[in-house]
Description:
This protein folds into two domains: 2-63, no CATH class; 66-146, Sporulation related repeat (Alpha-Beta Plaits, 2-Layer Sandwich), CATH 3.30.70.1070. It contains five helices and six strands; from the N terminus they run αβαβαβαββαβ. The radius of gyration is 29 Å and the shape is elongated. β4 (102-107) and β5 (110-118) form a beta hairpin. The longest helix has 23 residues, at 2-24. With 147 residues, the protein is α+β, with helices and mostly antiparallel strands. The N and C termini lie far apart (64 Å).
Amino acid sequence: MEKMKRIILTITAFSVICFIQAQTGRIELNQMGIFSAFDNGQTKIYFNQDNLLKEITLAKTSAEKEYNVWRIQIYLGSGKNSRNIATSTKNNFKTKYPDVFTDLIYHSPYFKVQVGNFKSRIDAESFKRKIMGEYPKCFVISEVYKI
């Protein structure tokens, strides 16, 4: 009988310790920036986790940086044939300059072809002068990226 009481007491103590340990890692997801929950004043969503996961997530978020790249837009058009013209422009450019990044972008109603990922405006302007004869309406633009 005494042995049975010890077993029950041990199991109960173990369960309480596990429950308390699980509660220490409880944080709100919207505090971490992982998930923004619908909050009607009564509902909160919790995620039970190890504190190490929180530290890793916060470290990644703080490590995100913005950087500028410079590109040259060689085509901008809208209308019936603009997609075909943009695709043709992109393919022709890729044939002549296979090492230069080329991107076809659609922002309604415009199709754009942008080339290059230059670190400075000077580099982009230099390349622009090189292709100006083939693409007389090209111009340099700046893009901001988060990594």
